[in-house]
Amino acid sequence: MSWFADLAGKAENLLNNLDEQTGVALRNHNVAKPKKQERHETFHQDVGTGQRRRPTGRTSKKVSTSTENRATDTPSRKPSPIYHQSRSPSKDSQELTIKTPRNRKSPTRKPNTQFSLNNCPRTLVGDIRDNDIDDQYGLKQRRYSLPADLELLTNHNLTYKMQNLEVENAMLKNELNVMNREVSDLLDRLRRTEDGNVVVNGFSKELSKTQIKFENVEMQNQRLALERDSQITQIEQLKHKIHEITTGEVARQREHNNALEAEVSLLKDRNLELEEKINQLTEKSSEHNTAQLKLENDLRHAQSTINELQVNLEKSTAECQRLEKDWETYKLRVKSMLYAKDNEIKALQEGMSLNEDTKSLIEQLDGLKEEREVLSEAISRVRGECNDMKTYIEQLESRQNSAVRVVAALRDALRDERGAKNRAEAQCLAIGKELKTVQIETGQTIASLRTALRDKENELTNLRNTTSSVRSTDTSALNVADYDVMQETIDNDKIHYLTETLVQKQGKIDSLLADNNMLRIQMEKLESKYKAEMASKRNHTHSVVHVDGDRDRCRSRHQQPVSTLTALSVRFSVAMKRHPLFRTFIVIYMICLHLWVLTVLFTSTPDGHIPRQVKL
């Protein structure tokens, strides 16, 4: 702890030097002006009684704590000891004496405490003796408080101590600057108090002037009171007018809102009707498309059957012509043979003997007769088949004509549907235009309402400013202001509610427009699908079923009437081919049904079954 004692001794020396220098400066200043202080001593005694006292002297605790704190903190840099040894106390005293007059000229910082000639520290007046200073600050004790073993310290300890001393020196310099500022402030106050008698002498004149000003201010207050009353009446009139205007505008806005709600309800009803019409048209178009597909399939089958029948007719006509030619040749051959046989018969009848040749010829004649009968039967069959084919062809032609008529009717229906669709689109466009006009009108009404709200808010702010400038103390005026505030809040609530309703209606209109756009998009998609299906139907090439060479199979197949069971079976098979899920479901259903039947057969017993008694 020796270094701490050394540091404390050095700090005490610095403080003693500082106190001596301040005392010398104050003595010199007080010798220059002793008469002025005696002249104004009585005045400062009267004035300084109400002022606060400044605490005398600094406390040793603060210095010790500051030194302890500075000692515990390690400094950031280590200056050389040569530099610190070169600094002498005379140089420090010269710097302090140079700084004091500069600080006197700039009294920027005012002290927290005020002093008078009676209530002031002893260093400020000049009545301090050398012995008193020495006894007060303990100068004799500080001079002999340094340690005796200063030479035994090492260089490292010296550098560390010099760093601490440098920090303490900076702190003491700051304190000296503060003290110099306080002294300069006190000197300025002394100069000001010297000029106080002049102010006291002119106090009566200032009182007369202030009385005149007070009378003028009273007159102005009376005028302001009259103006205030007139402004209050004007404010009441303006409030009545604003109330009437707001009530009228609110009624108009309500009527306008009711009209807009009615229009919106009508538009909703129209949209619902249009949606129903569109749904009906889509259902009808789907039904017509299915019917058209069925009819086109029937037409394709009918055309394929007609082509097959035409081919069969051509074949049958060719065969008939061939058979006719064969029949004619056979007739000629038979006639020639019959003619020869008749001649032979005549010759035989005339008495000629029968030979083996004649017997063979007779047998040939019998065979030819049988063949003629068979051929006549075949010709009759072919003629019957030809007649049947003609009747079937006539039926197919009638079916084709009916199918053509149905196709024409479907085309007419499609034209009607397209016309209805165009009309619906025109109605949608008209409704969209109406909705746009309604949106524009609602936007205009909202803008007008907003402008009206802004105007009213500006008027209310102006009225508030006028009412705030005119301060009224009457209870009636306060009640009127409260009533006005309540009315303003009610009007603001009404306007806010109206704006909210308008915003909600605008949102509903936007949703209706979005629904209309969605319906329009759906219509366009359906049109595109319909056009694509029609193009695919036109460009699609269907395979023609080739007919086998056997005529009997073709005849039996075409002559069989198409029953409902066969049609259902065909449709069922087509559905099974097109839909694999349906096919798997039917397979699973059949398997489950067979399993159920087998379980029933194996588990059930007949009614007349008598169980056998087992012999034990």
Automatic annotation (TrEMBL):
UniProt feature coiled coil, ranges: 155-193, 221-326, 358-466
Region (Disordered): 30-121
Domain of life according to the entry: Eukaryota
Keyword Nucleotidyltransferase: no
Keyword Phosphoprotein: no
InterPro entries in the record: Golgin_subfamily_A_member_5
Biased amino acid composition, Polar residues: 62-74, 109-121
Keyword vocabulary terms for this entry: Coiled coil, Golgi apparatus, Membrane, Transmembrane, Transmembrane helix
Membrane-spanning parts: 581-602
Main localization category: Golgi
Protein name: Golgin-84
Species assigned in the record: Loxostege sticticalis (Beet webworm moth)
Lineage: Eukaryota, Metazoa, Ecdysozoa, Arthropoda, Hexapoda
